[in-house]
Amino acid sequence: MSKPTSSPRRPSRVGLVLFAIVRKLLAAVVVLWGAATVAFFAQLALPGDRATVILNIRDGQAQLRTAAELAPIRAEYGLAHPVLQQYWDYLRGLLGGDFGNSYQQFRPVTEIIGEQLGATVVLSLTAILFAWILMIVWVTVTAGRGPRVRGIGALVDVVAAGLPAYWLGIILLLVFALGLRWFPVIGGTGVDGLILPALTLAIPLAGFMAQSTRAEFERALEQPFVLTARTRGMGDWEVRLRHVIRHATIPAVTLSGWALGATLSGAVVVESIFSRPGIGSVLIAAVNSQDLPVVSGIVTLVAVFYVTVNLLVDIAYTLIDPRLKAS
Amino acid sequence: MTTLQAPPIAAPRPRARPRPWGLYVAGLLALLLAIAAIVPQLLATHDPFALDYARALQGPSIRHWFGTDESGRDLYSRVIYGARESLLIGLGAAAVGILLALVLGSLAALAIRPAAVVVDRFVEVMFTFPALLLALLLIAIAGPSAVTEIFAVGLGTAPGYARMIRGQILAAKNSSYVEAATALGHSRTRIVFSHILPNALRPLIAVFALSVGQSIVWASSLSFLGLGVAPPSSEWGALLDAGRGYITQAGWLEVVPGLVIVAVALTATTIGRHLQSYLEKGEK
Amino acid sequence: MTISETTTDPVDLGLDWPATRLGVENLSVSFDVDGRQREVVTGVSFELTPGSCVAIVGESGSGKSVTARALVGLAGRNATVTADRLELHHEDALAFTSRQWRKVRGRDVGFILQDALVSLDPLRPVRAEIAEALRLHDWGNRRERAARVLDLLTRVGVPLARERARSRPDQLSGGLRQRALIASAIALDPDIVIADEPTTALDVTVQAQVLGELEKMKDRGASIILISHDLSVVAQLADHILVMRGGRVLEQGTAAEVLAAPRDDYTRALIAAVPSEHTRGRSLSSTAPAPDSIALGSVARTSGTVLEAHDLVKRFRAPDGSSTRAVDGVSFSLAAGETLGLVGESGSGKSTTARLALGLEKLDAGSVRLLGSAWSTLPEWRRRRLRPSISAVYQDPLSSFDPRWNVERILLDALRGQRLSPTARRSRVRELLELVGLTPEVLPRFPLKLSGGQRQRVAIARALAPRPSVLVLDEAVSALDVTIQAQILDLLVALQKASGVSYLFISHDLGVISHLSDRVLVMKDGRVVEEGAPDEIFRRPQHPYTRELIASIPVFDPGAFAA
User: Fold this and answer.
1) pLDDT tens, C321-348?
2) For chain A, does the N or the C end have fewer beta carbons within 10 angstroms?
3) Are C245 and C266 in contact (CB under 8 A)?
């Protein structure tokens, strides 16, 4: 009992696509607003009087403060206003690119993150690139073969996906930097120092993406259009590369936003292992000192990345493949 | 990243293999783990807290299977004694995560319309935060401790599971058998409890097993960063944190506890996968 | 033009039939399943000569598709193909390397699969698919190939080829994309074309177009191997027919021999099972059940009008907010003991009409009355009291059963509304099983382990459990093999005769509809375009669409071949 798939009077395609894009944009804005709200209320959640907490974080000691000490802090962070007013100011600030001020460093959060963000984004994108290369090669070679090869392929996916980044990083560091001395132990921002950290993030990501890609790859291999291609005289490798891969990577592409978020947050661990500069060290320091504006600033920023990439992927698909429009 | 926590896409279906050797190995490891957690004395070879500076930082040997740490403590025994806390944190975090996900996911799929939409949006918003960041946010607020770690990991993984549970319930809700039950004149409550929930929540045990493995890895990541259980403890993540300063001289302090965590995570994954395929086959 | 019988001396064959393009002798295919060899095709032999069509007919699991694939070396990775002789253009195909096979495929042998929606790459424009067939055999340069693609599309009857070539399969109508698929198969003018279920899942009007194209190819001298489950399709085109079942050829001969004077029981059953207006009131299967009339007496008997639909309208909202009318002003009434057939192609709104009648979809306008009382206007909780009077059987029974439940639990659950003691309920379950021709052995089994026919019988038993006055059957026999379909249709006729239940029978298949219905509604684009007795509609169709529909039905009259 299915609903009719095609309707007699179909509205224009351009109109449909535009409409779908506008809807997606609105949905993204709603999600971002929600993310900002969560980040704001997380800052309120610190137990105790906020001004006192801020001063204590700044001085690194816990003590009671006098009203005279607290007054400038209250003024700087707008704590005298009612919560709703603060919320409103916070949202307005975000729109203007203002993430508030650090409790500890007296500086705008944007400035602190901005100094470190570049290195982390480079690491993240390199890792995603590596992951795609590893994943495509591995799946294309092993998927849809005999039971033995397929079993090994799938097993490697699962194991790779389950490797903790800290452990993988240490192993790579021990083998390739300390043992073989192919790469520097303390990674700078150079290309040399980028490869091991990026691989550390890429291998589990590749394993994870490979699981869904492999399932889709093997499903696509069974599709009638693959048989049709073979009946035209196409060989196995060409079928895989020209037809199947495109279908198989769809789920992995739709994971792009998530992959970016995962690698950006995974960078926290990796940067710490390889002593790389980046938002990782900033974040760990901020968590340790309960510098919440910095923590929630980074969290919000990653959410923005996630939503933006998802939106772009979504829109790209709406333009490329009308079948995905409905979902 | 370690524990790339599953976003809600179709899980690859495990294919039936003639003999599940992986499951046998996983079963054996699970048994050893259980013994280590309940009666560590049976497996340990040394007192995990006995200091012996003369034997500090020795590599693995017959006497010290996993080597010794900077104070000469036997690493193998420390790993065995750390099993209880590590497992409890993993189980606790998985329970917190799945319970939270169950509430959110069911509400998003089954609550009456405006409430369902609000919960649904909330889940989407939480899902935009990577699990590790969500966990770090909670630790920043509550300060590092074992209990915080449990809740942080649970909170971090919950949005992904909530989305999965929501999807499962919606799939059952829109299935033909639910429509057939409606056509037979069954009431909505009856349909929810006799068709939708049993079918949608069927894979939950398997998901829980998978989640325990993931949670242990997440929790050890936090400890590794110095944001979870602190070093005097022999919780596995804390062991890693403690060994970080000696990477160049004593790599085994990092390699071995990490290997144990990987093995445990794979054990949980293997058992979870087999449960999953068993439950799926049960339907057929 | 005639084809040799395989019983003749094989040594002479090559000499007797110099024009043979494809010679197959004693072809067998087996699969390696968990280390064991399982033979799925055994001893298939035939000769294919220029301008002729060999058809392989069989139901699911007969091995017909595997045979077709083995002929182009694509039986599968774990398949073993053996034959006394497999000659393609007088070359020994059994000795072909995979490189040689690739040269042959597409150039010497074209292959057409079912529905182009899945048989063409859904992510690429059709011109890329057609050009690929040329490129793989190094035909011309890019520009020449582009020109040839347009030429081919025009040749298979695609109007405005230049624009259509840029479309993906899902952007084309069923007929156009199937033509595009044909264009890609004949891009290099292969003199052998294998068509594996080329019209399955297509609307009947599109099916007629596709068969027309195959006919034209044959007239131009191509040799065609047609694989189909549908005898009426085969009868249109075949010169020689092989009837397969369980991997074996039960019977083969010229089309006239096989269709008009079948020697094998199974062939006879297959022919008798095809429903049409001529088979009304006749049993389609030899195992026609005679339901126990005592058991059936318990199904509700009513008189007068049981279901009345007035001016039904259902709109579906498109993603951009505009709405389309899936059902647009449909009215009908169903009398007690009557069968009303609702026929239409995909997207005609017939299934939505069924859901509206069942009260599973909200109406936008109009009303449905059940047993003379309000139905569609009631809220669901008040409808529940009336639900036992109307039940449904779906196309895919498997998905309509809770996967955790066995047959017994399914049927017990359906009896829940009636206040019966546990023992009474159990005996009623057995009674229902008997009614639909099943034994109590199926009770502990899960639907997944049952055959398609058994599943549909369980679904009918479940539908009859509340003693309904109206049974809505939505494409209830469409997914079944023709002999199983015949049994279910016979069962439905017998059940109605004994109990007086009314059927709202929805199908895309005019043959089934005219076999079963007392009255027929023809739907198109959400509207009823014609209504009347099946005789009137078939003999004197008024609406142009009905005329087109009826002209498209392949005429299947085995008697005609005898003349």
Assistant:
1) 567 888 888 999 999 889 999 998 888 8
2) C
3) yes
Distances (CA, A) of C230 to C52, C207, C270, C553: 19, 12, 9, 12
Q: Distance between the two ends of chain B, CA-based, in angstroms?
A: 35
Q: Is A290 on the interface with B (CB under 8 A)?
A: yes
- What local confidence, expressed as pLDDT, does residue C224 receive? 94
Helix residue spans in A60-191 (DSSP H): 67-77, 83-95, 109-142, 147-162, 165-172
* Size (chain B), residues: 284
- C398 vs B66 pLDDT, higher one: C398
Confidence at residue C291, expressed as pLDDT on a 0 to 100 scale = 52
In contact, C372 and C345? CB cutoff 8 Å: no
Fill in the DSSP letter of residue A101: B
Q: Rounded to an integer, what distance in angstroms lies between the CA atom of residue C157 and that of residue C160? A: 10
Residue B251 has φ and ψ, to the nearest 5°, of -60, -30
The interface predicted TM-score (ipTM) is 0.83
Q: CA separation (Å) from B231 to A183, B51, B241, C395? A: 30, 15, 7, 63
Nearest-neighbour CA in chain B from A18: distance (Å): 23
How many contacts does A have with B, using Cβ atoms within 8 A?
Answer: 173
Query: How far is the C-alpha of C168 from the C-alpha of C148, rounded, in Å?
Result: 18
State the DSSP H helix or E strand holding residue C339, giving kind and residue range, or none if neither. strand C339-343
Residue numbers in A near C347 (CB within 8 A): 4-8
Contacts B15 to C, Cβ<8 Å: none
Residue C503 backbone phi and psi in degrees, to 5: -115, 130
Answer positive or negative: Cα dihedral of C6, C11, C15, C20.
Answer: positive
* Model pLDDT, residue C192: 93
Contact C525 A8 (CB under 8 A): yes
pLDDT of A258-268, one tens digit each? 889 889 888 88
Question: What Cα–Cα distance (Å) separates residue C131 from each residue in A78, A221, C138, C153?
Answer: 68, 21, 10, 11
Those residues with Cβ within 8 angstroms of residue C42's Cβ, 6 or more apart along the chain or in another chain:
C28, C63, C247, C248
Among C104, C181, C352, beta carbon nearest to A4: C352
- In three-state secondary structure terms, C392 is strand
Point out the residue among C74, C320, C326 whose CB comes nearest to the CB of A231: C74
SS3 state at C248: strand
Residue (of C403, A2, A161) closest to B168 by Cα position = C403
Q: What is the per-residue pLDDT for C195?
A: 93
Mutant choice from B177, B191, B278, B281 vs C, greatest count of C C-beta within 10 A? B177
Provide the CA A283 distance to its chain's centre, in angstroms.
15
pLDDT per position as a tens digit, A122-141: 999 999 999 999 999 999 99
Spatial CA neighbour of C194 closest among C207, C181, C205, C204: C181
How far apart are the C-alpha atoms of C392 and C473, rounded to whole Å? 6
Cα separation, B29 vs B23, in Å, equals: 10
Per-residue model confidence (pLDDT) at position B8: 36
Chains with 3 or more CB pairs under 8 A to chain A: B, C
DSSP B13: P
Report how far residue A105's alpha carbon sits from residue B169's, in angstroms, rounded to the nearest whole number.
47
Positions in chain A whose pLDDT score sits under 70: 1-14, 185-189, 320-327
Extract the tokens encoding B273: 């996968």
Please list the rounded mean pLDDT of every run of 10 residues in chain C (563 residues): 41 52 92 84 92 92 91 88 91 90 92 87 91 92 93 89 88 87 92 90 84 90 92 90 92 90 90 84 70 48 81 78 81 92 88 91 89 86 88 90 91 86 90 90 90 91 91 90 89 88 92 91 90 87 88 76 55
Say how far apart CA C83 and CA C80 lie, in whole Å. 10
Residue B242 region by backbone torsions, left for phi larger than 0, else alpha for psi between -120 and 50, else beta: alpha
